[in-house]
Amino acid sequence: MAKKTDKNSYTIIFAIIMVVVVGSLLAGVAQGLKSKITLNERYEKMQNILYAMNINENEGDGDIVFVPTDKVEETFHKYIKQQLVIQGTDVTENEEAYLIDLKKEEAKAKDSDYERRLPLFIGEKDGKTIYVIPMRGKGLWDAIWGFVAIDKSFTVQGVFFDHKGETPGLGAEIKQRYFMDDFKGETILDNEVFEGISIAKGNNDPINEIKTDNEVDAIAGATITGDGVTKMIKKDMRMYMPYLKSLNK
Known about the structure:
Elements: H1 8-52, H2 69-79, E1 80-87, E2 90-93, H3 102-108, E3 118-125, E4 128-138, E5 143-150, E6 156-163, H4 177-181, E7 189-190, E8 193-194, E9 198-200, E10 215-217, H5 223-246
Parallel strand pairs: 9-10
Antiparallel strand pairs: 1-2, 1-3, 3-4, 4-5, 5-6, 7-8
Helix pairs in contact: 1-2
């Protein structure tokens, strides 16, 4: 006589019970971690914005060391004096502008009746006002994003870039310090006209001494990712130009 445990029905019932139990446990863990994940995402955005302003704990030439999470909130509010949301001709203050989802805003903007919300962070460092602009684009494989910090003369003070799935050693290098440091001192204007900054292959300035050519040297073997960074900078910074130029009138 076959044991109950040898029956197919027993196996099926056992499998269903295990799926329900394990699924419930995983759901419970996910729910329990949700608040921590959300908090970490907030801290990461603050760290990235501060890094673009050259507020970090870097020491060596190649280091990328963010303000630690136990200090980042206090440091963020120390240096970021205003968070604005630009929506058409309306400009309002919003203390949580850094939480605006650029991907969702871009999707909403496909509706011609919707005015996209543009978050802008105004900081102060060493007596200088700095404007930090968030941006999002497309690399070779997936999303790329970052922050570019400029002063009132439209000179880049610093940047931070990151990616979701670019190739290690190639496109993924956009988040390395040697690449990001090249942007410092570059201007986004050409004779008062917005030009942005291009990632240029063979720009005859490999050590980036020329700061008025609107170019930085490309990463070898990462042409498509570099083109994505170029398009991202030009596309997203252009939207902020009417407001930024109005500040110098």
